[in-house]
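It is worth pausing here to work through a concrete case rather than discussing structure prediction in the abstract. The textbook approach is simple: state the sequence, then state the predicted structure, then interpret. We follow exactly that order.
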Amino acid sequence: MQTKIILPESKIPRQWYNIIPDMPGPLAPVIHPGTMQPVSPDDLLPLFPMPLIEQEVSTQRWIDIPQEILDIYQLWRPAPMFRAHRLENVLGTPAKIYYKYEGGSPAGSHKPNSAIPQAYYNKIFGTRRIATETGAGQWGSSISLACQMFGLECTVYMVKVSYNQKPYRKSMMQLWGANVIPSPSNQTQAGRTILAQHPDSNGSLGIAISEAVEDAASREDTRYALGSVLNHVCLHQTIIGLEAKAQMEMIGDYPDVVIGCHGGGSNFAGIAFPFVADKANGKQVRVVALEPASCPTLTRGVYAFDYGDTAKMAPVSKMYTLGHDFMPPGIHAGGLRYHGASPLVSQLVHAGIVEARAVQQLACFDAAVQFSRCEGIIPAPESSHAIRGAIDEALLAKEEGKEKTILFNLSGHGHVDMTAYDDYFAGKLNDYEYPEEEIKESLSHLPKVG
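Step two, the predicted structure:
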């Protein structure tokens, strides 16, 4: 009865998979927030190094991973896949449940899969300092680690509610040399404007992005790094799904359904995109994104052009969005707070290739606790959404009396997220359905494009 499916280091993928050539139809243009015209590579240079801009727009299906990146990846990659035998037994399901575990990276999540390449390409391009944002802290800790490895300075604008709720994520960033600033802050014009209007603001990823973009654009030695949403970030994360496909092949199995949690789209794209390619080639596989009901971008947002940030400084993309000034509730403990979504994931959802579901946070924490008591691993709150989806699929298989193979991405551990679990056990967490009138108000401010 095999529990761990482990690839040898010699089998680590040497290329990332770029889904752009296999998308259903052309991509919508990315729009400059000032001119409202399609951006050029030169427009993006103040924010990103040219190698990442080239990856962002590449139509090459396979992109080589430089050896310097592979050398660092090998600290934790290939990542293991597990068969959740104990969880299956407790659920009494005929389904087989597998999970790809990304919590073995130094930062404890999938985020270094893109942080390492982003730091590398910035280093070889001459960047000396990175400005970025983080919500729950997985990205902030990962880019801090990556900058330390490549000798770059790093400033992280951390959403204030997470800065206060997750002090040990902040400690990890500081340990790896980063300067961590609660957002909104008085360090930028964007932050000062928000604080003048809302002195007690909990912050949002949209605001933190505005601060980081302003910081990067104002200094020639600095560039901006984003941990999700963008095409090149999704590209780097596909190493997850590529390994998972190889591991499934090792045991002679293939998933009926592939599940990932969804905030901006990076970890979902990482596990899903290589299987979406199979689906495009005729494989019968469902691909499901699970998001929080308190930040329901894919399920209650609209597919439209919107700004990537609150201060309207970042490029405008066509994506599912709740509106760039959407503010997630402070009661929301599970991360995944972004108002928008990856344009690539959004187009796949809009085309009906990817399914999207929203789940309440108490059901997610219930699933995380059940999983941990069966499998031993303490999941990150973000990952609990995928666990909820996998358990629901397994229970449906039980109800229908059907065998099914389920694969989900356990995108990180929760060792520095225990405050959320403390609040859960103390009964301090509540479910929250975002009010329709507030979503409508936020969506009324979308930019007019075309």
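Step three, interpretation. The mean pLDDT is 94. The longest helix spans residues 381-400.
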